[in-house]
Structures are given as structure tokens and as C-alpha cells.
Amino acid sequence: MQLHLKVPNMACSTCVESITKAVKTVDPTAIVQADTKTKLVQIETQAAEFAITEAITAAGYTVTGD
Ligand SMILES: [Cu+2]
After folding, report:
1. Is 19 among the domain residues?
2. If you measure from the C-alpha of residue 11 to the centroid of ligand 1, how many angstroms do you get, rounded to a whole number?
3. What CATH number corresponds to the domain at position 54?
């Protein structure tokens, strides 16, 4: 399943790293692609969307609708 999330406070590559790490705590096999310009995060994962969203939020980021 592919998730498309918007993370408005993702500003730089360190943010991308933190978000990727957070996602991988939920699903180590997840593939994360993030664009700091569009603030869009594409995640290929078998995990539930709410679990991914929760992990990103816990890492200090805001997830809004696509
Ligand atoms: Cu950053």
C-alpha cells in the first residue's frame, strides 16, 4: 500500500531522516520518499496508515491530509 502524507513542518534533510526513522520503527521494510519543497511524503508500506501517522507525530511532525 502506498501512503501519501503531507508534513508541513518537514524543512530539511534532517527532518526527512527523522521521519524515515520514525516510519521504519513501525515498518522496517517501508520505503520512504520525501520532498522538502512540496512537503509530501510517499511511503510504501504494509503497516496501517494510523500507525505510520502516529509515529511521525510522535517524532514531532505534523501530518495533514494529502
Ligand atoms: Cu529539518
Report:
1. yes
2. 4
3. 3.30.70.100
Residues 34-59, mean pLDDT to the nearest whole number: 97
Q: Is residue 2 a contact partner of residue 42, using CB atoms and an 8 Å limit?
A: yes
Domain that holds residue 42: 2-58
Instruction: Give how many domains the chain has, as a whole number.
Output: 1
In a domain, 27, yes or no: yes
CA 38 to ligand 1 centroid distance, Å: 14
Residue 14 identity (one-letter amino acid): T
Q: What is the DSSP letter of 1?
A: -
Whose grid coordinates read 526513522?
A: 21
What separation in Å is there between the alpha carbon of 14 and the centre of ligand 1?
A: 4
As a whole-number percent, the residues of the chain with pLDDT over 90 amount to: 97
Query: Tens digits of per-residue pLDDT, 5-25?
Result: 999 999 999 999 999 999 999
